Amino acid sequence: MTLALLLEQLFNGVQFGLMLFLMAVGVTLVFGIMRVINLAHGSLFMLGGYFLMAALAWTQSYALAVLFALIGGALVAIVLEIVVLRPLYRRGALDQVLATFGLSLFFNEAVTVIWGRESIPLSIPPFLTGSVEIIPGAAYPIYRLVITGVAIVAGLLLYLLITRTRVGALIRAGSDNREIVAALGINISLLYTLVFALSAMLAALAGIMMGPLLSVEPGAGDPILILALVVVVIGGIGSVRGALVGALMVGIFDTLSRVLIPLVIQTNATSALVGMAVYVLMAVVLLFSRTGLFAAHRG
Amino acid sequence: MSEFVLETHHLCKAFGALVATDDVTLGIRKGETHALIGPNGAGKTTLVGQLTGELRPDAGRITFDGRDITDLPTARRARLGLARSFQITSIFDSFTAEGNVALAVQATEPHSFRFWTPAGRIARLRQPARKLLADVGLDGLGHRIASRMSHGQHRQLELGMALAIHPVMLLLDEPMAGLGIEESRAMSQLLASIKGRYTILLIEHDMDIVFSLADRISVLVGGRIIASGTADEIRNHPAVRVAYLGEEDDEFDADG
Amino acid sequence: MPLPARRGALLLVLLAVAIVLPPYFGTYYTRFATQIAIYGMAALSVDLLLGYTGLITFGQAALFGVGAYAAGMLTVYGITNALVAWPLAMLVSMLFALAIGSLSLRTRGFQFIMVTLAFAQMVYYFAQSLRNWGGDDGFTVPQRNDLGYVSLANHTTFYYVVLALLVLVVFLAHRIVRSEFGMVIRGIRDNERRVAAIGFPPYRYKLVIFVIAGGIAGLAGALMANHAKFVSPATLSWQLSGELLAMVILGSANSLIGPILGAAFFLAFRDVLSDFTEHWMLFFGPLLVARVLLVKDGIWGMVLRATGAGDAPGAPEVDCPELVAPGMDSKPGRVP
Questions:
Q1: What is the dihedral sign for C-alpha C205, C211, C215, C218?
Q2: Contact at CB, C181 and B114, closer than 8 angstroms
Q3: I need a labelling partner for C29 at 20 to 30 A (CA). Which of B64, B113, B252, C290 fits?
Q4: DSSP of C24-41, one letter per residue?
Q5: Helix, strand, or coil (residue C51)
Q6: From CA C124, how far away is CA C117, in angstroms rounded?
Q7: What does pTM read for this prediction?
Q8: Rounded distance, CA C130 to CA A269, Å?
């Protein structure tokens, strides 16, 4: 275990964590503002990858393909919000969980119908291949650096949106008291659609960026969704800051444990411990604070 | 043994910049009916929450029957004899009226880990429940599903459930809330009938009830107790009149 | 015919159908009915948590799978007597339920759902890592358990054993939800805050029902290991947890019988549609969404209403009709 290797894994952890952040922030925003549990969020991640793949077959420009994939994700999200989510706002958790679960089943099967069951490898765009020496002796893939950068930028833009713009203020206000915001004449429906589309696009973006790293396959979003949920539990529901901290914790913890545990424990149980590490972390956090680290203060 | 059943000592609670409970020291004497009044937003709900264990105070202590209960969970406080009724009706909707009270009676047992005998057939639960229903004026309505009862009947049920757990002290949170004239009168009589048998902390807006029932009154404004004393003392207290100015200050002058 | 008697008659008819029909139609249907009974039992365990306690758990498949793994492993190790293996499998599931529940039940609502899901995933990954037991592929169970001298290799014999166990579980669950303990957990479903305010510490009671439900799911899992003679991590997947929830809601929650009918519906739906297309899930997903958004009632509720055994007209939305306990003097189908 050289320093270079450790650093590389640390970077990987941060990068993975930032992807999880893109997913988790969508979950936490949608729940915090609309009080909706969306188990179909993983499907949007998966569709991001599929749409990218489809768009790449269609246009030679990678940038254009990314744009089309994002638009596709947003469109799916808008349709979903209007048809399925809206009736769910007034319903209880059970209805939301089951309806969005049903949606995720549908999407997993739908991509199988259109693109087959096989896992489809996506290649890294040619202009982003290769590595760069971040410290002497340690070469790190350019692609991973770029997507880390994109995730950071997306996170900053989101932060600016929420804290500096009028829409962001409405989002925050709507989270605390939707009646007052509605009474102010703001179109709450439109706001909700916007928030949902935003969260979906973040998920799709994560899917687009992870596509070349993870391969595109039915159900690709499910393990990511579950980790995103763990992040939200750890970070605290409704807290964007919690989503960031939680995501980085989970990303780094998961990545490092996969590397370090086999070094320390050399038994058959190793791979079990590795997969379970993140959940142990979640259990520890729960013992410490049953609402997560940064539970948003609800009146 | 202290003369006080419930005491708070310098209780404080703030939500960010909003101080909801500001150094509240209160003592409820055994057997007395003590009313807590105050304008909306004074912090009554927060105080009640801390007394019942649903909210943690930032500072200060609460003692019940001489015992420090500040860190005790809600269920433990109920078992020690602190019963409450809720301001917004909080009952078991899918149960019958009798079932609601029977469950409260059941709560007085050491535990309920009995899995075999149908609860509906256990006389030691049902009989006291029926009697309590009669006591609170719901005689004969035992079979009615709670969700299908009227608001006034709900308030009666609330009281019945509080009485069922053999309390030492009753914390009644706006028992008159939302009641019409007839119902108010009935509830008023009901409360008068149990007065003296229990120590009562009564949170109310209805001044008629307050002045007719309360032995002592405390006034909560902006999170602090600005006055505490007998009905007459409170009626003539300058700070209290100021606090209520613009609200119902004529209630103080009228036939009280 | 008074209401309680009507419902009792309905249940007898269902039981009679279950006893007579499947073997009459042959091995395929007997095996199919066995599968319905097994999943029905697992779904019933979910209903105890969902319909009666108000706990939405996305992790019951973990306890089902643990029971399956335990029974399978015991058989491989030579412990083939069902009277030993099945209770042991249940015990293991209950221990897992105790561990998962003691942590999960400290959370509420949204968090609880996610935490149960996460812990179930933990168990799933653990099973996948068991390389000696086939890892992701699972392992075959060499033989079915036996009841001493009675072998369960015969599908019909096994079916009747499973059916008998299902009836027993339904009966016991029925007693539990009507007992004093049952009143507390229903109180928790209706109003947990109130339950605490009258002096019941909710956590304790939730944990107990969680463990009981875990044991039932574990038994169902052990039966599954016997039925399929195969155990794999797929029995632990969160999709299965979701499917169990779907079965409960499709069949009518808060009814014990509903989940069994929901399981029958789900499996029949899958069986019939997969004759036409391998992509039957494409239709099930939207069906579930439609049921949640558009339909107010589950199968058992509809059956009761259709046969005049449901609650009186004008009653509030009854998505949870109940079995009736004889001797209750209150309105049938309601808690006294």
A1: positive
A2: yes
A3: C290
A4: HH-HHHHHHHHHHHHHHH
A5: coil
A6: 10
A7: 0.90
A8: 7
Look over chain A and give the mean of its residue pLDDT values, rounded to a whole number: 85
At residue A264, the pLDDT reads: 75
A214 to chain C, minimum CA–CA distance in Å?
Answer: 18
Q: Report chain B's C-alpha Rg in angstroms.
A: 19
CB–CB contact C336 B164 (8 Å): no
Contacts of C230 (CB under 8 A, 6+ apart): C138, C139, C140, C141
Residue B248 has pLDDT above 70, yes or no: no
How buried is residue A130: exposed, middle or buried, by Cβ count under 10 Å (0-12/13-18/19+)?
A: exposed
A186-200, B60-74, C207-221, C251-265: least confidently modelled range: A186-200
Q: Is C206 on the interface with B (CB under 8 A)?
A: no
Contact C62, C120 (CB under 8 A): yes
Pairwise CA distance, residues C309 & C295, whole Å: 19
E-strand ranges in chain B read 4-15, 18-29, 33-37, 59-64, 67-68, 82-85, 169-173, 199-203, 216-221, 224-229
Chains that touch B (3 or more CB pairs under 8 A): A, C
Which tokens is B23 given? 């150094």
Strand partners, B220: B225
Q: Is A222 on the interface with C (CB under 8 A)?
A: yes
Q: Is the pLDDT confidence value at A74 over 60?
A: yes
**Nearest chain C Cα to B95, which residue?**
C335
**Residue % of chain A over a pLDDT of 70:** 91
- Does B216 score more than 90 pLDDT? yes
Helix (H) or strand (E) holding A138: strand A138-141
Chain C contacts of B98, Cβ < 8 Å?
Answer: 330, 336
Tell me the ipTM for this assembly: 0.90
Q: How far is A98 from chain C (nearest CA, A)?
A: 7
Question: CB contact, 8 Å: C186 with chain B?
Answer: yes
Helix axes C238-251, C281-294, angle to 10 degrees: 50
Give residue-wise pLDDT tens across range C53-96.
999 999 999 999 999 999 999 999 988 899 999 999 999 999 99
Chains interfacing with A (3 or more CB pairs < 8 Å): B, C
Contact of C114 with A234, CB cutoff 8 Å: no
